[in-house]
TrEMBL record:
Record's keyword annotation contains Signal: yes
Family classification: Belongs to the bacterial solute-binding protein 7 family.
Protein name: DctP family TRAP transporter solute-binding subunit
Entry's transmembrane regions: none
NCBIfam families linked to this entry: dctP, TRAP_S1
Length: 338
């Protein structure tokens, strides 16, 4: 050959180098997947994602790594964009709230219908049955692969101005709500003045008194020390439960081997069940701690509860067509049958 051997070896070196770099990049991408969460591992929600990551790490012998990015940082704090970011591939995986994904998946508003699910058994009947399957199909139809359920928890009402045991007590109160339109309707129906903002903005707004109240599970209230920013009244009204969903971007999912898919699914189901049980077990202790720190806790009589149910009935008229009559029916049947 008249090609000088030196340049030949240089050429082959370059070729091998490029091929190696490409292989390396592909394998790195396949190995480390991002997981988005809104809350950090100081909260059960973040612990659910970390548990998932730990189980995957352990059972894949380090072949697959999940790296958790808390505080909605992959969407610059805008939690209602998390689903879109996962669908488009900016986020590989997420453990997300039904509330935050509901702007893109209207069926998820099911869980925010006020006073639909009175207790944990009702939540389990919905997520674990036909309604839950329908919700997963709706997520899949919108380009994301759902894997398992977790739980942020029953959302309770807090405020800085006084005890709330009837809708009239909410009259004119500024309440921070998540940026999901159904909440605007629920709190308007109760005579309050709802203000939508992200979780990142919520604590500053409570601190300055820009808002008078907020609603979140007791675990969030407790860990974030919401009582220390003047929220010294909590009403236990179980008005909605906020399940978490473990999910994956569709292209990422399709790129995994069958074994990796099985591993991700099985560990998500396990981490979810672990977190749901833990969240529920901790509830009573958290309530006691909150009361010990001086928070007034209000429980509702059956009549008081019914007054809130009646005041928010029109939310159903507006939202059932958006959620889907069949899905709401399936959820109601599951709740009644338990
Ligand atoms: O923003 C909230 O209130 C939170 C943290 O509970 C959710 O992400 C739904």
């Amino acid at each position: 050959s008249y090609l000088p051997s030196r340049s030949l070896s240089r050429l082959s070196c370059a070729l091998v180098g490029t091929a190696f770099a490409a292989m390396f990049a592909t394998s790195l991408q396949a190995r480390e997947l991002s997981v988005s969460t809104v809350l950090s591992d100081a909260f059960p929600w973040g612990q659910a994602a970390q548990k998932w990551a730990d189980l995957v790490e352990e059972r894949s012998d380090g072949e697959l790594t999940l790296r958790v990015y808390p505080n909605s940082q992959l969407v610059n704090g805008d939690q209602t964009r998390e689903f879109s970011a996962m669908r488009s591939g900016l986020i590989d995986l997420a453990v997300g709230s039904t509330i935050n994904w509901s702007p893109q998946v209207p069926e998820l508003n099911l869980f925010s219908l006020p006073f639909l699910m009175p207790d944990e058994a009702a939540v389990d009947a919905v997520t674990g049955g036909e309604a839950g399957d329908m919700v997963f199909e709706a997520i899949e139809a919108r380009g994301v692969v759902p894997l398992a359920w977790g739980e942020n928890g029953f959302r309770q009402l807090s405020n800085s101005s006084g005890e709330i045991d009837e809708p009239a007590d909410l009259e004119g109160l500024k309440i921070r709500v998540v940026g999901s339109p159904l909440f605007q309707d629920t709190f308007s129906a109760l005579g309050a003045n709802p203000t939508q903002m992200s979780w990142a903005d919520a604590k500053p707004a409570l601190t300055t008194g820009a808002v008078d109240g907020q609603e979140n599970p007791l675990s969030v209230f407790d860990v974030a020390r919401i009582d220390q920013v003047g929220q010294n009244h909590v009403t236990l009204w179980n008005y909605m439960n906020d399940p978490l969903i473990f999910a994956a971007n569709q292209q990422v999912w399709a790129s995994l081997s069958d074994d990796e898919k099985a591993l991700l699914k099985e560990t998500a189901v396990e981490a979810g069940a672990w977190e749901v049980a833990m969240t529920r077990e901790q509830e009573a202790g958290r309530l006691a701690d909150i009361q010990e720190r001086g928070v007034t806790v209000t429980e509702l009589s059956d009549e008081q509860y019914q007054a809130f149910v009646d005041a928010t009935a029109n939310v159903y008229d507006k939202w059932i067509p958006r959620i889907g009559e069949e899905l709401v029916e399936a959820a109601r049947n599951a709740i009644e049958a338990q």
